[in-house]
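Supplementary notes for students who missed Thursday's class. We covered one full example, reproduced here. Read the sequence, then the structure, then the short commentary at the end.
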Amino acid sequence: MADSDPPEPATYQSTTQSTPAKHTWKSADPRKHNEPLPPDAKLDRFLQLMDSMGKTVLIAQDGLIAIMRSGESGPAPQPPQKAIETARASFRKLFFSEETGERKTGISEDAIVQATIGVLNSIGLPNGLLASPSQYKYDPTDDKRAKVDAALYPADYVPNDARPNWTHLRMFVEFKKGGTANDPFDDDGPVEAAAQTRTETRGQLTAYAYQTLVYQHRTAVYAMLINGSDFRAMRWDYSGLLVTPAKDFSVDPTALLQFFWAFSSLDEVGQGLDPTATLVLPGSPEYKRMDLWAKENTEGRPSTRSRRKADGPTQPVFKYVRDDFRKSISSKWPRYKLKVGPEGREFLVGKPIFTASSVFGRGTRGHIGLDVVEDRFVFLKDSWRPFYKGVDPEDLGPEPPPSPVGVAQEPAFS
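Structure (token representation):
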């Protein structure tokens, strides 16, 4: 019998991998007819972390608040003294013995979660934001099954099932039981700590920031790490991560509440939401229109225009386009109305068919979108433009040649 080459081993390709990636893996098992391998969240986080190293900057809390309030005038609102005293009493009870006054040891992460959420929900944060725990369950629409410990939400969208709601959270909060091993950052050396447990925590935080950016259209993501009795505030955007030095809040929680208060006082744009993207809510005319356009066209001809909005594309459409659009809105994934260009042209989109894998970079994603003006399906590339001196952005390049009458300039499915 002739010798044969050994079978190719099964390898794994992260679904969150940058292009170009620093690590290359395959996502199918060639020994089983290229059957897809199941997701590996731990490996995904490792690859994502490797792609995002060297982008963290340490910044004083006052400096981070100033950046957060860059569009505001006057000093940041301060928490009232009553709120500070409420927090002080709660955290003293958590971290110190009532009998001896000595510092407690072995405080569980759950105890820190419950005490902190109790404080945040009892002091009356501005704009009615409320905290909700979610450390044991994941969002059913999330294929990565991320279970962030807690988050702040508008009062109308606080989850009632102890799961994270990635569509509506405004700031996520991650808790650890304390100690250097659980602190992903270093205030005295290179800010990105290199020890294994510390990098794992940083990978976890990066994964949660990424999930927020995937579900929402944002200019920035804010978060809080509470590690025992220390806290760090964080701000991600597509250029890097800002993080504050660790500060103990067990005796004096003023600084902790100052950040929560300053953040909660801002409107949704100040809290990092992209003003050019608006959620399309169930029952709205736009939501119903997307459902209508997703229906299979059994008549085999385009829809016709009228005084009212067309009930489907007004030009022929490939079946796969409509099928993919239907898939993009078939789950409970959030739908958005995006305004594009200086004229604010509107497109309705569901789940992207492509999403860039890294928290940092251009944040590119691709949608099959519904062009509200032209009544047609288009492929909509959504990305942040890089800035280079002397280089025009891609949408400001040479003028394209004039199109024949009735032929659109935008790429469209037809």
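Commentary. Confidence is low (pLDDT under 50) at residues 6-26, 304-308, 403-414. The longest strand covers residues 230-237. If anything here is unclear, bring it to office hours.
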